[in-house]
## 1
Amino acid sequence: MTQNATSIQHSEAHYRLRRIAGRMTLYLVLVLIALLIIIPMLWMLSTSFKLKSQLFSREIYWIPKVITLENYTKILNNPSTPIALWFRNSVIVATLTTTAKLILDSLAGYAYARLKFPGRDQIFALLLATLFLPGVMFLVPNFVTVARVGMLNKFSGAIIPALASVFGVYFMRQFFLSIPKELEEAAAIDGANTFQVFFQVVLPLAKPALATLAVIEFLGSWNDFLWALLVLKDRAVQTLQPGLRTLQGAYTSEYGLMMAGAVIVALPVLVLYAFLQRYVVESVATTGLKG
C-alpha cells in the first residue's frame, strides 16, 4: 500500500514538473515572439528622436544622446508633406471602410449562419475559394471599374472596392454559429421578426467579434498602400501610406523623418487596440464555444 502511494506521488510530481516545463517553454516562446515585435518598434521610436548625425553612428544607442523633436517639426511643418491633411484623409477612409464592412459583414455572416435559402452552402463555399486567390489579381479589373465610373481621386474609389470582404463574412458567420439557437427561437416565440432577432438579440452578443473585426479591418485599411497609390493620385486626397513614400528618394532617404512618419502612422492603431483589447481578448477566449 505504501509503495503504491509513493508511486502515485512520484507520478504526480513528474506530471507537475512536465506541466511547469511546458508552461515555461510556452512563455519563453511567447516572450521571444513579443521581443521580435517590440524591438523594431522601440528602434523606430528611438530613431525618430535622433539627430541626423546620430543615425549612422557605429555605436548603437537605444536612448539618443540628444533627444530632439526636429524630425517631427520638419515633417509636420513641411508644405510638401502635408501630414495633417494625409492623416485626416486616412482617418476618413479607414473609419468609413471599417464601419461599412462591419455592417455588411455582420448582415451577410448572419444570413449564411442562420437563414436558409437555395444554394446557400454552395455560394458560401465559392466565396471561401476566393480567399485563396492573390489580391493582385483584382487590381486591374477594380481599377478599370473605378476609372470608368469616375471615382478616381475620390474617397469612394478607395472605399467601395474594399467592401467586398470575404474574410469578414466568414469571421462573423463562425461567431454567429457559436451563439445558441435557443436564444433566437425564444425571441421568435415572443413575436420578434428576423431583423428584430438580429439587432436586439444576436448583435449585442457579437460585440467581442465586432471589436476584433474592427481592429483587423481598420488596420488593413489604414496600412493600405498599393490601392491607395493607384486610386488617390491627387495630393489633396492622398492618405498617409502613399504620401509618406515621398520621404524616400531614389538615391537618398531621410530615415529620421521616415521613422517619425512611421510613429505617426502607428499611433492610431495602437490607441484603437488599447480601447478595444478587452473585447478582442474576450472574442478569442470565446471562439469555438457553443451552447
## 2
Amino acid sequence: METIQKFKEYLEDTKIILITTHQQPDADGIGSQIALTHALQSIGKKVVCVNEEKLTKRHQYLDLNEIIIPYNKYMRSDAPKEFDLFIVVDTNTTDRIGTNMKKLSIKSNRILFIDHHPCPKEVISLHCIDINKCATGEIIGKLIEGLGIAFTKQMALPLYSSILVDSSSFRYPKVSSGTHRLVASLMETGEIRPSWAYNQICGTKKISHIQLLGRVLSTAQTDRDGVIAWITMSEEELKKFKVDQDETNAFINHLLILDHIQIACMFREQGDYVKVSFRSATNIDVGTMAHALGGGGHDHSAATIIKGNLQSVVKRTIFQLTVMMK
C-alpha cells in the first residue's frame, strides 16, 4: 500500500510524463514502459515513451503501436521536451539509461524510479522500489490496480511478457501467490495465449541454435560436491553456429534441474573478456557474489565480466565461489 500511495503522490499535479528504461532493455523494462504508458494515458496524463535506442527486432511484438520512440527520432518530433515527471523503469540509476536520456532527465521537475533490483534503503524510501517482487512488471501491474485502472489488452501482453521473462517462467523464489493472481487478471483480458506468447517472448529457433545448445551442454561440469555446475561457450562456437549472444542467455537455466545444485554458472567468451552468468537454485545470494567479482544483479540471477581467457576465468571463478559458500 505504501508504494501505491507514494506513486499517487508523484502523479499529483503531474500532466506531462516521460517514461524510459535502461539501455539494451529486456522484456521487463519494455513491457513495463508500454503498460504504464497505456494506463497513465487512460487517466488523462500526457505520456511520451523514449529510449536511448530503438527496439531490437525480437522485442517489436510488444510495441505494435510503436509507443516507444528512440531518442534521435524523438528529438526531431514535436513531442514535449520538458516534463513534470521523468519515470525510469527496471533500474534505479540514470547511469544506465544512456547519455542522451540522462541529459534529458535534467529537464524534468522530478525523477521517479520504479524497480525491483537491490539498492540502498535511502533510494527505496524515495521511489517505487520493491525488491521482493519478481519483476518490475509485477510492480507496474500492482500500481495500475492501485490506481483503479482496469487492465486492457494493450497492457496485458507487455506485462505478461515482463513477468514471464524476469521470473524465468515462474521459476525464481520471489514468485508469489500475488504474482499468479496478477497473471490471472492479465489473462482475463483475453489477450494472452500462453503458447503463442511464449514463442513470441523466447523466439522460434533455427536448427543451428539447437546444435549449439547441444555443444554447450556437453561441456557441463560440477564441483566435487555437485552443488556448483557450469557450462562454457567460446566465441568460435558462436561464430560457427551463427547464433547471436543474446539468444544463448537461457542456456544456463538447463543446469537448474540438476540434483543438489545450488549455483549454476555460464562462462561465455567475449574477446579478451569472459561474461559469467549466475543463477541460484536455493537461497544463496548470487547477486552479492557477482558484486564481489565486479558485477551485480539479483539474489537469484546475476552476472559479471572478467578479463582473461576462458579456461583461467572458469578455474578462478569456481574457486572463488567455493570459498564464498563456506
## 3
Amino acid sequence: MGTLYLTEQGATVTRTGERLLVRKDGKLLYETPALHVDQIVVFGNAGFTTPAVQYVLENGIDVAYLSSRGTYRGRLQPAGAKDAALRQQQYRRSLDDAFCRRVARSVVAGKIHNAAAFCRRQRRLTHDGKRRLKSLEALLPKVRAASDLQQLLGYEGAAAAMYYQVWRTFLKATDFDFQKRQAHPPPDPVNALLSLGYTLLYNRMFAAVNIVGLDPYQGFFHQRKYGHAALVSDLIEEWRAVVVDSIVLTVINRREIKPGDVQRSSRGPRLTKAALTRFLSRFDTRLHETVSLPGAAGKTTYGRAFELQARQLARVIGGERATYEAFRV
C-alpha cells in the first residue's frame, strides 16, 4: 500500500473498475490498481470525478489537500473507525493533568533523544556541535522530572533551538543559507524544505490517528487550538529528526535539490515541479524503509509505525498499557 501524489495542475482522478486513473486534457498520465493506494495527496489544483470520490470513500482511501506550496488545507476522509468509547476515554484523559504530563514527558524525551542520536550519527560533528549536543542531552533528566506542561513546552523549545544549531553544521552546500528554524513563513529554501517535510509527516500521522479511531484534535502535550490537530502534533515529534530532517539533509548534500529549484515569491519559497517530485519520492521511499519498533512483531515500515504508535497510545488511553513509549532510535 502506498501514497498517490497529484502534483500535475489541472489533473483529474477517475475510476475504471478497480483502477484509479489520472488524466489531464483527455490524456492518461498515470494509472494504478486501487488496492495499491491507501492515501492520495493533492497538491494545488487537481480534482476527482464523482465516481472516483465515491470509490475512495467506500474503500477507506484517505485524501489530503495541500496548496501547491505544500501547506495543509484539509482532507476528504472515509468514515473510518467509529469507536465512540475510545474517544470518550480520550477526552476524559485530557482532563487528567497527571496523565497529560506522563504522555508529554515521553513525547518530548523521545524527540530530544532521536534528535541527539541523529546528530551523533553524522560525521561532520564539530567541537562546538559536540558542546551543544551535550547541552541538548542534559535536558533529558529535566524533561523526565518536569512538573507541568509549561515547563515541558519550555524544554522542548530550548531543545529545538539547540538541535537546529547543530543540524545546520551538517549542511555541506555553502549556497544554502540556514540560520535558524522559522516556519511561518519559511524565509529560505532550507526552512521551506523542512516545512514541506513536516506537513507531509503531519498528514500521514493525521491519517493514522483517524484509522485508529482517536480524535486528532484532542492532544495531551500541545494545547487545543482551533483548526490545529494537537494529537497529531504530539505524535509526530518523535519522528521529525529521523524522517524529515534526514531527508532534507540528504537532498541538499547530494545536490538533488539546489537553491535554483526553490523559487521565491511574495508568499514565500516554492519548489519547482521537478524538485517537488524528487522530494516526494524521497519521502515516500523513507516511509517504506523498515525499522524495529518495540512491541511490534519483527520489523515494520516507518509508514506503518505511525499507525502502530497511535494504537499504542490508544491502549494507554484505554488502560491496557501503563505508559506511552515514544519511538527511539
